[in-house]
Amino acid sequence: MKKKIMMMSLSMILGLSLIGCGTSDSGSSDTDYTIGISQFAEHPSLDNCREGFLKGLEEEGIVEGENLTVEYDNAQADISQASIISDNYVSENVSLICAIATPSAMSAYNSTMNTEIPVVYTAISDPVEAQLADADGTPAGNITGTSDELPVKEQLEMIRELLPEAEKIGIIYNTSETNSVSTIATYEELAGDYGFEIVSKGINTTGDVEMAAADLVTEVDCISNLTDNTVVSALQTVLDQANKAGIPVFGSEVEQVKSGCVASMGIDYYELGKQTGKMAAKILKGEAKASEMNFETISEPSLYINTEAAKNLGIEISDDFKSGAAEVFDSIVVDEE
Amino acid sequence: MIELSHIHKYYNPGTVTEMCLFEDFSLQIAKGEFVSIVGSNGSGKTSLLNIICGSIPIERGSITIDGRDITSMKEYVRHQKIGRVYQDPSKGTCANMTILENMALADNKGKPYGLGRSVKKSRIDAYKEMLSSLNLGLEDKIHTRVGSLSGGQRQAVALLMATMTPIEMLILDEHTAALDPKTAEIIMELTEKIVREKKLTTMMVTHNLRYAVEYGDRLLMMHQGEAILDVSKEEKKALTVDDIMGTFNRISVECGN
Amino acid sequence: MALVISVLEQGMIYAIMALGMYITYKILDFPDMTVDGSFPLGAAISTVLIANGVNAYVTLPISFLAGLCAGTLTGIIHVRLKVRDILASIIMMTALYSVNLRIAGRANLPIYNFDNIYDNPVMNAIFPSGMKMVQPVVIIAVIMLLMKFLLDSYLKTKSGYLLKAVGDNETIVTSMGMDKGKVKILGLAIANGLVSFSGSLYAQQQRYFDASMGVGTAVIGLASVIIGMSLFGRVNLWGYTFAVVLGSVVYRACVAVAIRFGLQSTDLKLVTAALFLLIIVISRQLDRQGQRRVQKNLGNDKEEV
Fold this sequence. Notes:
The complex is a heterotrimer of chains A (337), B (257) and C (305). By secondary structure, chain B is an alpha/beta fold. Chain B has helices spanning 45-53, 75-78, 99-107, 121-132, 151-163, 181-198, 209-214, 233-237, 241-254, and strands spanning 2-11, 19-29, 34-39, 60-65, 68-69, 82-85, 169-173, 202-205, 218-223, 226-232. In chain B, helix 3 (99-107) runs parallel beside helix 5 and helix 5 (151-163) packs parallel to helix 6 (181-198). The longest helix of chain B has 18 residues, at 181-198. Chain B is globular, with a radius of gyration of 19 Å. Chain C has a two-stranded antiparallel ribbon. With 305 residues, chain C is an all-alpha fold. Chains in contact: A-C, B-C.
């Protein structure tokens, strides 16, 4: 009998705590907003995105702690978690969900399908492929945002300029990351125009990176990084192997250049987040509807250079080239979180 | 009739620890005969049962039941016509299933285990009748998990399960050795009753010389892969425990026991 | 309210997977990691078929069959090739990762623009528009209960008894004249069929397939089975399978509560682990008390054999 009571009370506590909270928060007045940020994984680029997003809102007068309440949850790369997170936001009836990275965006879109809650996403390479937008860029539903599609063409141009003799570019990517797979396709499509050949190595886990890198450095003249979550997590391993072989690694965004890539024609995720935040502000203020806004990309990719990394490899970078950079780093900073 | 002819069995063949257990061993057991087997440790009595059941392979020789050669038959196929009760009471029953479920499982032996309902209501009375013949009151506990029964009760159920369906042979592998003397006595009496009622060809390995003498039509004493004593019928009836104790002590001393 | 519904939806979908794990873990005593691959297998197959215009309901039995094949292969690797149980299942899980990518053709496949089993003209006609919110949860409940009763009735068949027997005592299966290897393969096949079926339901509820969908499935399933058996197993209302279903819902609820109360998501797994440990320890404590009581009661019986 005692067991039965214990068991039943436990189930009741769980049940009540779920229902109880569901009804508690409601009173969001016209000027006070509650938003939920669902981020798929812990990762510097995505973190920058989130910070930029809040900054973007702030610049539009929506400031956390003043007229904005922010709920933030990280799915730790677990899809079932991502869907519970967005379901939770829906039950709290937030004003808007900001979804960072593809699986979170897909879950948020799915959770809000029968509601009025708009979703703003960021850090998605291909919103069309993910069926969040139609081929012409119009939203699939009450959802819009920004894409972090890599400026592959500009990246190839940059590599050609820095390494006039290079023939083969190596890329490591996780075969199960959609973003990477589609970017590789773009690389292969455009490489020929610049006289390059792409050598790609597919991996599945962070543990595979070292072997793939060790193998790759013997075959290629340089390595170009994507925004692949798995590879970026093990960037130091890639850099180690490349340095041993004396070949340069090119990054895909600012953080990677900071931590030792020679240069990148890439995205500043902070800027991307800011742009997304501004879109969100329009939606929150009622100036625009997510369902009517096409997704946006960063219009001008920015150049980042790390002179110390270049010097270590004996690569000459002209002052002329440097002048075009958004930021030049003169030391390698290994990010310590 | 069960016939083992020219059996050769080695342990670890081809290695330095190679050990010959049976060399050209032959044995015939008549239909309906109840054979009790005794012998020292390592004499090959349990191996003999394992060879008949197909639990261990043999190097040479053949085994036939009623003229049917079963030498190359898989263990589980042979068991369709063999009932076996082990020393460990937990081996002959399923602890997590009820008595009724265990009986239903055994009732289907030899037939395909398909998608028909296992417990047939019409058979429950028959199961209860079988259980009541054990005189252990188990017929009132058919919904009890077998795991919560005592060792003796479990062994009685195991014996019943092994003999429920028509079988060509019953193998008893020291099936009373793990029980206390009083319980062992009850199980032995039950065994005798079932074997006689169903006229089963039976091989019983036992460490208890008294049981070997009291029960069965024939007595074998195994030693180093040979039957050094084989008495039956009238000759066996005249046999006493003291008679075989002498022989047994002699071989035990040889083995260093 | 939406969160409660979400917990029930996911809890019941995962419950079908947990029923599969109940077969392997509780009945067969087989640590089966295949599920991390067979769960997304069902998801991959149903999303691809739906994207190609196949009726969503038709994809359910197909997913079940695919899981059946995966489980059979794990069984064959273990039984016929004599590879250790957990190793055999890990081999299969690894292989399935690539197979799933091949089936889906890519790592992430959305099906937002297609009918699924929860949202289609027929179901929308059956349910009044006011019940839109509970439509999926009702459909899931019906399917889940159907699977539970099918499994329950299977376990009452002769074949089902043999399955229960093989996990309990392999020797008895041989004694019954049956090949215990085949019975194990059958059990693994049915279990993974259920898991794959559950994956299909999950992908349709989420409206997409993702290659990383299967990560952690075995842990979720195991947690559901253990929580269910520990909390509800001893009460035995509608059988152990029902306890497993409840376990799955409780596990989902725990995760939801943790998120709800603004727990740092970094600590989430640690809290889940602590909760898990607590439940196991409490249940063992209760078991011991129970055993003492049984021993007291049996004390009188000892005399009678």
